[in-house]
Amino acid sequence: VPVSVNVSRVTAVAPDFLDFYISNKKKYGIGDGFLMLEITESFACEENKSIVEIVDKLHQNGIKCALDDFGAGFSSFRTLKNIDFDEIKLDKCFIEKEDFQEKGDLVLKTIVSLFKDLGMTVVQEGVETEETLNKLVEYSCDVIQGYYYAKAIPLEEYKLFLKTNTSIAYKSKVK
Questions:
Q1: pLDDT (tens digit, 9 = 90+) per residue, 95-145?
Q2: Taking burial as the number of CB atoms within 10 A of a residue's CB, which of 1, 113, 142, 170 is the most buried?
Q3: At what angle do helices 17-27 and 48-60 cross, to 10 degrees?
Q4: Would residue 29 be called left, alpha or beta, if left means φ above 0 and alpha means ψ between -120 and 50 degrees?
Q5: Roughly what angle, to the nearest 10 degrees, separates helices 130-138 and 101-117?
Q6: Known catalytic residue: 41?
Q7: Nearest alpha-carbon partner for 89 in 145, 135, 44
Q8: Backbone phi, psi, residue 146, to 5°
Q9: pLDDT mean over 48-64
C-alpha cells in the first residue's frame, strides 16, 4: 500500500531529514515508488534551491515527492519549472463555489491539463460532492480525495480495512 507523508518545514530542514527517510525505506523494505513525501507549496517556493537538491536525492533513492496545497498560497510556476515533482495536490480552493464559477472552472481545467502535460499525477483534495467528482473526471484529474469517498479513520480501523478488503469499490466513473 503506497503511503504519503506530509513533511513540515521544520522536518525538511533538519540535518538528518534525508537519512531518516532513506534509511527507513531500506530498513522496512519499502519498494521504490511506495513512499511519497508531500512538501507544501509555501515551503517549496521559499526554499527553491534546497528543495531541488532534496527532491533529486529522494528520487535517487526511490522516494516520490508531491507538491501539496498548490493554489493555497504562492503558486509559483518557477517552482514547478525547477523542481521535478511526481505529483501535485491541488488545494480545495479550486473547487469551492464562488461568484465567478465559470472562470474558476476554466482555471481548474487548464491547471489539470498543464500538470498532466508536465508529467505529474494530479490530485484534487477536498472533494465532497458527486457534482465536483463528475467535473474532475471530465477534466481528467488522476486522483480524487475527500469526504465524498471517506472521512479520515483511526489507524486500527485502517488496519482492519486493509485486512478485509482486497480491492476498493469506488462510487465514481474514474478508471
A1: 987 766 888 899 999 999 999 999 999 999 999 999 999 999 999 999 999
A2: 142
A3: 20
A4: left
A5: 50
A6: no
A7: 145
A8: 155, -175
A9: 90
Nearest CA to 39 out of 23, 18, 24 is that of 18
DSSP-assigned states of every residue in the chain: --EEEEE-HHHHTSTTHHHHHHHHHHHTTPPTTSEEEEEEHHHHHHTHHHHHHHHHHHHHTT-EEEEEEETSS---HHHHHHS--SEEEE-GGGTS--TTHHHHHHHHHHHHHHHHHTT-EEEE----SHHHHHHHHHTT-SEE-STTT-----HHHHHHHHHH-SS---SS---
Candidate list 46, 47, 125, 131, residue with the active-site label: 125
- For cell 529522494, name the residue: 58
Q: How confident is the model at residue 172 (pLDDT cuts 50, 70, 90)?
A: very low
Starting at the edge strand found earlier in the chain, the sheet holding 64-70 runs 3-7, 35-40, 64-70, 87-90, 121-124, 143-144
Q: CA geometry: angle at 39 spanning 77 and 173, to 5°?
A: 80
Neighbours of 173 (CB within 10 A): 9
In the chain, the percentage of residues whose pLDDT exceeds 90 is 54
pTM of structure: 0.84
At 162, list the grid cell.
486493509
